[in-house]
Amino acid sequence: MRGQAGILGSESSFNFKKLQVISRSLKSLGIGLEQGSMFHTARNFAVIATVLVSPVVLAQAQSFGQDAGQVPYTAASLEGEFAFVETYAAHVAQAQGVYRFDGKGNFSALALINQPSSSGERVVVSVPATGPYTVNPDGTGTLVLNVTRPDGGISTVTQDLLITKAIPQQGEKVATEWVSMQREPSAIVGGAAFVTSVATRRPDGSP
Questions:
Q1: How many whole angstroms separate alpha carbon 119 and alpha carbon 122?
Q2: DSSP letters of 135-146?
Q3: Which structural domain, as residue segments, surrounds residue 194?
Q4: % of the chain at pLDDT higher than 70
Q5: Nearest to 68, CA basis, from 17, 27, 16
Q6: Rounded Cα–Cα distance for residues 136 and 125 (Å)
Q7: pTM of the predicted model as reported, rounded to 2 decimal places
């Protein structure tokens, strides 16, 4: 038992994630551990202690551990629908709406903007936008929005985005949240307002 503890460490200090990685490596080599007794059976300790020093297992375990962190973000990471809230400097206005990304570098969006009017009352306008987007391997990227203004004209603005939350899925990183900031003042709200956004993925199958 002393030798086993020297290799594996105490039960409280042994990293469960590392044990999962080792278990996956052993499984790929045709070696299985008994379910329901990962820490408590002599057989499991013996199996791990025997093969843990194997260069094959060590190399494969290291590969499994690195894969998740080294998978790059791509345009496909944003594929799907995101609900977003856009705010303007001093909170003079707010927008909310939905982005739809095709996963190949193009998007469409529709926003409702609540803003002050020249008469002092607040008005709500519907503003569509389309354009290309890019995603870098580190999760940064850009949105180029061709915004159709309420007067029918089109303004083009660029937002710098950052993916802040993601989940692994089938060997890829799937973004679940991103934030952005606009380089130019708002194309809709006056006063040179600074624009920032937060977007959250909607469940698949959203209408």
A1: 9
A2: E-TTSEEEEEEE
A3: 75-201
A4: 65
A5: 17
A6: 33
A7: 0.66
